[in-house]
Amino acid sequence: MEVEGKAGKPSGKRRKTCCIAVIGSLVGIVILMVILAFTVFKSKRPVTSYDNLSIEDLDVSLDIAKVKVYLNVTLGVDISIHNPNKVGFKYQNSTALLNYRGDLVGELPLLAGDITAGGTEHLNLTLTVMADRLLSSSNIFSDVTSGVLPFNTFVKLSGKVKILFFKIHADTSSSCDFNIYISNRTIGDQQCKYKTKF
Fold this sequence. Notes:
Shape: rod-shaped
Strand content: over 45%
Mean pLDDT: 79
Radius of gyration: 29 Å
Order of helices and strands: HEEEEEEEHHEEE
Helix content: 10-25%
Distance between the termini: 67 Å
Structural class: alpha+beta
CATH class of the largest domain: Mainly Beta
Largest sheet: 7 strands, antiparallel
């Protein structure tokens, strides 16, 4: 009986040792994951920036007798979205907006996409003014006669950055105010603001 008891003790010790080793390994893995999540894989905000804003088409004519304006504007907007994270940023469908004095006068759908870790996505957009919306503005005639048209473009991308087992929601947006000078068909007084948040 004593021999069996002595033989049984080492197997109990082995079980305890194995349990301690497994628990220790799990704790170590959790600690390592937490450290990685707050250092190497710490989530960073995607950054949006305007690379270029240009006039692709501009046709303007005035009917002074009828106090009417005929206007066609098409803009080329080049935007970059940089993902500084060590993992990919997946963004949803969105819309690029073109505004005139606070009113929406043009829009372009943006399809969902992925930006690789540390990568940059370049979006080359073409925004065309919806003439009926623009010409309904009470300011359009005076702006055209003054030779300056004030516009704003706005792009917002919403998506997720996956850090280990967690998905973190992120928004990046850009808003750019500018003037179109009709006489020399140029863009000036450009002021852009960028915003990102989790």
